[in-house]
From TrEMBL:
<dbReference type="InterPro" id="IPR009594">
    <property type="entry name" value="Tscrpt_reg_HTH_AraC_N"/>
</dbReference>
<protein>
    <submittedName>
        <fullName>AraC-like transcriptional regulator</fullName>
    </submittedName>
</protein>
<dbReference type="InterPro" id="IPR018060">
    <property type="entry name" value="HTH_AraC"/>
</dbReference>
<dbReference type="InterPro" id="IPR009057">
    <property type="entry name" value="Homeodomain-like_sf"/>
</dbReference>
<dbReference type="Pfam" id="PF06719">
    <property type="entry name" value="AraC_N"/>
</dbReference>
<dbReference type="Pfam" id="PF12833">
    <property type="entry name" value="HTH_18"/>
</dbReference>
<feature type="domain" description="HTH araC/xylS-type">
    <location>
        <begin position="196"/>
        <end position="294"/>
    </location>
</feature>
<keyword id="KW-0804">Transcription</keyword>
<keyword id="KW-0805">Transcription regulation</keyword>
<dbReference type="GO" id="GO:0043565">
    <property type="term" value="F:sequence-specific DNA binding"/>
</dbReference>
<dbReference type="GO" id="GO:0003700">
    <property type="term" value="F:DNA-binding transcription factor activity"/>
</dbReference>
């Protein structure tokens, strides 16, 4: 990271530090804006992450999507364009130099409005973008993000100025190196958006069986094209995606509602307890009872899955 970008990142970190003096994840007074702070590296956390841009001001993080790993820090920002089951952990943080990050949820309608107002071209349909993107952080994006966070110190200005700054951030994202993939989020009938609607359907009906042919028909695609596009966006097949959602929800039920593994597996759609235990261990590294006991001993203070994650 060059000296100019480092200086801007420090101003960004100072703004987050003033607004977020303690560790944790906080929803702010600005709609869609979240701040994250951690004074130490963390263990991997499995989450269902909604569409958002995550910009680190200080520290570093690693995210896993299926078998792919993505590392980012102030020199790179992360965009999640569709709902994705991810695993992430802070890799660089300390009491003196805590991990500081801003997350801004992405609204497809507002993205479309900015795209049309600024006369930006629609994304080409020659390909389909991945659901998780890393891009080099531009100085203008850091500056806009710093101004947005600083508004938290001036509550009376938020209503008028925050929407303008959010629009600027969207504009910067669509002009960046992954701009075409981000613009696909705003196009209602793009393949990315059709896959996104299928993901939402699976998310809503994760405990129910389904056929790829039915989802493909709903998306207006052939089964082969749908399967190929789904895997391009999510790095997994529709059935693998459903499996991750089921296992994450089962984990949430066991930790958050203190139900046993057999009942949790049944509630998320498993008919075989042995299959549930086997697949749970494959994803989380330990059988259900041992994994849940570890979280309770650690007194994590937050559920291992949440719509609004710390990524």
């Amino acid at each position: 990271m060059n000296a100019d970008l480092e200086q801007r990142a420090q101003a960004f970190a100072d703004a987050i530090g003033r607004a977020m003096p303690d560790d944790g994840l906080a929803q702010t007074a600005i709609p869609g804006l979240w701040l994250i702070r951690s004074s130490q590296p963390t263990e991997p956390l499995q989450v269902l992450h909604e569409p958002a841009v995550c910009i680190i001001a200080q520290g570093a993080k690693q995210v896993m999507l299926a078998d792919r790993s993505y590392a980012y820090d102030p020199a790179k920002y992360l965009v999640v364009s569709v709902d994705l089951p991810l695993s992430g952990h802070v890799t660089q943080a300390s009491e003196q130099v805590p991990y500081l990050c801003m997350r801004l949820d992405l609204d497809p309608v507002l993205l479309a409005s900015v795209m049309m107002e600024r006369g930006l071209d629609r994304a080409r349909e020659t390909g389909i973008g991945r659901g998780l993107l890393l891009s080099a952080t531009e100085p203008e994006l850091i500056d806009a993000s710093t101004r947005l966070v600083r508004l938290l110190q001036a509550p009376g200005d938020i209503g008028f100025l925050a929407p303008l700054v959010v629009r600027e951030i969207y504009y910067r994202l669509m002009l960046g190196e992954q701009g075409e993939s981000i613009r696909r989020i705003a196009v209602a009938e793009s393949r990315t958006q059709r896959i996104s609607r299928s993901i939402v359907w699976i998310k809503t009906h994760y405990s129910q069986p389904f056929s790829v042919e039915t989802l493909a028909r709903q998306a207006g695609m052939s089964p082969s094209a749908f399967h190929q596009s789904f895997k391009a966006v999510t790095s997994m097949s529709p059935l693998q995606f459903q499996k991750q959602l089921r296992l994450q929800e089962a984990r949430r039920l066991m930790i958050g509602k203190a139900i046993d593994a057999a009942r949790a597996g049944f509630e998320v759609g498993y008919e075989s307890a042995s299959q549930f235990t086997r697949e749970y261990r494959r994803l989380f590294g330990q059988p259900p009872a041992r994994d849940v006991a570890r979280f309770r001993e650690r007194d994590a203070g937050a559920l291992p899955i949440a719509a609004n994650s710390m990524l």
